Amino acid sequence: MTELALLVTSIVVTGGILIVAILQVAQVRRTKIHGGREAQYEALAQEAVEAQQAAARTNAELTESVKRLEARVAALEKLLREVE
User: Keywords on this record (predicted)?
Assistant: First the structure.
């Protein structure tokens, strides 16, 4: 009977070890998959930041252009008032 108990115990322990090993391998695979996605998300975030910075630069340039145009229009309006 003790041999049977020893055999059952060995099978249970071996099965438990196999289950833990399989779960660990699955976890490593999931981590690798998520790690790849993490890199993609970081690259996408970096692209978004660069696009925002470019938009801010363009906005500043356009603001300066509008200010110059406003000044020129004001000068033209003043000139037209003086001519009248």
Answer: Coiled coil, Membrane, Transmembrane, Transmembrane helix
- Counting DSSP H helices and E strands in the chain, the numbers are 1, 0
- Quote the tokens at residue 45: 């975030």
Pairwise CA distance, residues 24 & 69, whole Å:
67
Taking the C-alpha atoms of residue 34 and residue 36, their distance in angstroms, rounded to an integer, is 5
DSSP letter, residue 84: -
Number of residues written out for the chain: 84
**Tokens 């996408």 found at:** 44
User: Locate tokens 């490593």: which residue?
Assistant: 28
pLDDT tens, position by position, for the chain (84 residues)? 688 778 888 888 888 888 888 888 888 888 777 777 778 888 899 999 999 999 999 999 999 999 999 999 999 999 988 887
